[in-house]
Amino acid sequence: MKLLVRNLSRSTTEQEIRILFSAHGTVTECNLVLDQLTGKSKGFAFVEMPDESEAKSAISALHESRVAKNRIRVKIAQK
């Protein structure tokens, strides 16, 4: 299941996101979206979790939680 993670701090790294979601299950892919010109985070990422129940657990645990002073939003990514 592909998840969209929004409102990330610009300083949050892809590795930090992977660790955060790995606490709730297997993460097969983690892509922090970067600005092509500056190379800096755009404040959102996509996380792929193959097990649907683990992904739903991550959503319920992490949606509206605070990460680096920002309240992140986690939902199922649109196709």
Number of strands: 6
Q: Round the mean pLDDT to the nearest integer and report it.
A: 96
**N- to C-terminal distance:** 10 Å
| Structure class | alpha+beta
Instruction: Write down the Rg.
Output: 12 Å
CATH architecture name: 2-Layer Sandwich
What order do the strands of the largest sheet run in, or round the barrel if closed?
Answer: 2-3-1-6
- Total helical segments: 2
- CATH evolutionary superfamily: RRM (RNA recognition motif) domain
Count of the domains: 1
What kind of sheet is the major sheet?
4 strands, antiparallel
| Secondary-structure element pattern, one letter each | EHEEHEEE
Which percent band covers the strand fraction?
Answer: 25-35%
Q: Can you tell me the CATH topology? A: Alpha-Beta Plaits
Looking at the chains present, what oligomeric state does this protein adopt?
single chain
What's the helical proportion of residues?
A: 25-40%
Quick gist of this model?
With 79 residues, the chain is of the alpha+beta class. The protein is 25% helix and 34% strand.
Question: Any overview of this molecule?
Answer:
The structure is a single chain. With 79 residues, this protein is α+β, with helices and mostly antiparallel strands. The chain has one domain: RRM (RNA recognition motif) domain (Alpha-Beta Plaits). It is 25% helix and 34% strand. The strands form two sheets. A four-stranded antiparallel beta sheet has the order 2-3-1-6, with helices on one face. Strand 2 and strand 3 form a beta hairpin. The longest helix is centred in the last third of the chain and has 11 residues. It starts with a strand and ends with a strand. The relative contact order is 0.34. The model has no long low-confidence stretch (mean pLDDT 96).
